[in-house]
Request: fold
Amino acid sequence: MSEITQATFLDSNELVLNMGPQHPSTHGVLRVILKLDGERILGADCVIGYLHRGVEKIGENRTYAQFNPYVDRMDYVAAVSNGLGYCLAVEKLLDVEAPPRAQVIRVILTELNRIASHLVWLGTHALDVGALTPVFYTFREREEILNIFEEYCGARLTTHAFRIGGLQYEAYAELATDTLNFCDRFLARIDQYESLLTSNRIWVSRLRGVGILNAEDCKRFGVTGPILRAAGVQWDLRKAMPYSGYQKYDFDIPVGTNADTYDRYLVRMEEMRQSVRILRQAAADIPEGPIMAKVPKVLKPPVGEAYVSIEAPKGELGYYIVSDGSTQPYRLRVRPPSFINLQALDHMVRDTLLADVVAVIGTIDIVLGEVDR
Reply:
């Protein structure tokens, strides 16, 4: 337990306040113990574990294939990214690579999922701050993406799209057309979101200069993803350590300069535009061929270990797997971006106001299924 909850406060101006775990703006069952001087934050202590399911230990008691659907339930608004990272880690152990057709379809589904995740973030973040309209607009576009997922594999939220070695299903006939049509519509919708928010004086005043986390602090806490890029660090694993053929696609890495909540908003908005660029390139050139590599029916990776990380919507998502040569992982650990990024909350909210805590939690973009696992 932190010093915030241990200390005895004799000054009547100091107050300990529980925010959550049943609070809509904590984005799940997160409990934040706040130490207040009036409305000014003196410190914050995150209490997690209300959604803990022992996912990593479950993985050590299931076969490699059996555990594959479990990862979809961690970051449940970015299930496709979870599945991609896990499959790549097991494929590294097996020393196999998904066929070119499977890699392109993986990129299409993963980038659609990145947009869907950012849309949930934008709608709920705006709702937390007090803007009601954007959540209706963003969920309208997210519905179009979920329709594509449903057409592909029948699932909408916990989308189990990939298999170790390739894809679960062959792409349906209109996948490329549906993706390109969505891209054509979506760019104008991003402009619509920005017309509501980017220059809105209430939105700007609530976000600008709030929750600053500079580049050095990001590195100290291990923070990745849009929060790191908003601090001016041009780091994206799709470019730094390409996987699934991302080196073939032309796209930019948006960065900020002020490292505040407003810059993180701008970075994610631009990331959605860059995802559209990737989607258009991928959907226009889906190669023919198989969708599965040659993998044995019973997976027994050789003795060894592998760590693979991908650029998930919220940051670096990594899987570390140790194989003892059996059908089950000997050890399995996940590096979830929501869990790591949340560690910086105390630093980000100190000396801000109580109302700013809501904005900062929203800009971190956490999902408690991934934090607690």
